Amino acid sequence: MPANPFNSFTDYGIGIGLRVPHYRHILAKKPVVDWFEIISENFMVDGGRPLEVLESILEQYRVVQHGVAMYFGSADKFDREHQKRLKRLVKRTKTPWLSDHLCWGSVDGRYTHDLLPMPYTFAVARHTAEKIRAARDYLEVPICVENVSSYAEYHASEMTEWEFLSEVVELADCGILLDVNNIYVSSKNHNFDPYDYLNNVPHHRVGQIHIAGHSKFEKYLLDTHDHPVLDPVWQMYAHAIKLVGSTATLLEWDDRIPSFDEVHNEALKANKFRDKQLVESAA
Amino acid sequence: MKRSKPINSATNSSSRAPRNISSPAELRELQRVMSAALFRPLTPRWRMQKRWIDGRPMEEAAADFIKPNDRLSSFERLEIYNRQYWFRVLDCLWDDYPGLRAVLGQRKFMRLITAYLARYPSDSYTSRDLGNRLEQFLREEPQWAAPREELALDMARFEWAQIVAFDGPSKPPVTPDDILDTPAEKLRLGLQPYLSLLELDYAVDDFLIALKKRDSDALRAEASNAVGSAPTARARRKPIRPPKRAKVFLVVHRHDNMLYYKRIDPEAFAILSALAQGATLENACSDAIAASDRTNIDWATQIKEWFDDWGVLGWLCRP
Lengths: 283, 319
Fold this sequence. Notes:
The complex is a heterodimer of chains A (about 280) and B (about 325). Chain A has helices at about 25-30, 50-60, 80-95, 120-140, 160-170, 180-190, 195-200, 230-245, 260-270, 270-280; strands at about 15, 35-40, 65, 100, 105, 110-115, 145, 175-180, 205-210, 215, 220, 250. Chain A is an alpha/beta fold. In chain A, the strands form three sheets. Chain A has an eight-stranded parallel beta barrel with strand order 1-2-3-4-7-8-9-12, surrounded by four helices. In chain A, helix 4 (about 120-140) crosses helix 5 (about 160-170) and helix 8 (about 230-245) runs parallel beside helix 10 (about 270-280). Chain B is about 50% helix and about 10% strand. Chain B is mainly α and about 325 residues long.
């Protein structure tokens, strides 16, 4: 189960996001990390320090690209400049798979820099799947789409979010980056059972998992990535691992970033659940 | 922070989102309406505006396409995204333009960049480019920086040049061997694409250095355990005298992937500017010397020194 066409049949373990406050530590101390996830757009530049850092990282670590601006769900066609730069980066990093979000974020060439929720309709699923297929054909790398956390739903929606995700990935024949924290956040914001979500997506398509922390407000949860992972999310992660098998897992920590060791130790907690699952599978 | 009245972004969107989405065209309409809602500036209390672009109550417009739930109305759910959008883009420009912020003061800076983004929402997939039309906007609507219009323009140009220098493209630098056989009257050289030449009316470079020193001193004191070294609020807020009017010829560049700014002589600036515009080496140098009012200069020696420096810094490349 862990190695599948959607993660290029790799068997990656626990990774963490490569973030600027940790550059110096990583380059100087060379800590043992199974793999780093990079935000593609941060390195789709022409030169300077970002590419220098990336080259150093690539010499010593495995890297997987995660994007924030493909906007598979935008009505707009792909930004050609974005696609060209992304392909150049894919060749540079040799990422075994590439992920981005099941969302939209731009229209008529204007960008919100946000991951906005989709209306869950069959027509939109077809449109989105066509774009994912086109991206995969152009970039020549397997693609996993990530479920986003959301705070609003549209009247136009015809199905649940997990039905929409399933429809899109089946039509596109692509993988899923299952963000367990996002499912939890959205379940609280939209009053659904997060285990219904976990149980009802095509498990054989899950190529990667995200875990992260979130923030609680009076009337909703916000996906802030500025905390350790909360217990209900760990419980969901354990359930997800049971369903999909030991899968490449990444901790996202993007704001109020603590020391490298603190982030890495938090990520490595995921091993407990993976190990338990492996024991159960062996038994 | 208290903010000024919102300035609405010009949009070409229709004011009503379709209720059903059964085609990409209807998806586009929904996305146009939603993005128009996001791009509308927040009220002075950081809330979503109460009226929609067609004059209807925003509550009604939001309810057209956003479902309420048991805790939040359609308005409140849409407002989360409206606020997130503005917090995100304002944060980016806040970080990218510390000098402009110091020159204008925080309140005026916020008014300026809100007006800027309302007029020019992001046209790039990367938030790195958010400031790419700020210079243009300051030329078109200088009143947002009054009474420091010229200073603000200089600072905005200077800070954008740093963004370009940080990760802009580079070309292989030319070596003496590359140009050995080309006579000066035919030789054309280019400048590195990451390099910006700025003719400024204010010493914004000195100002920014002083500003960064003040902020790093405050941070260092904060990090120290030494008795009596804790920074006071007053020390952190200590104002820095705005830069005086002074002609400055500045090159913003990078070397070994570190960002630098270097003042150069006006004649050196003229030569580099002419080269960047495609002049031959001979014409660039002779025109710069002819325009100079300086005398008693051994121009041959001086120009050789400049080119030696520029060669070491890797500024020159094939056009």
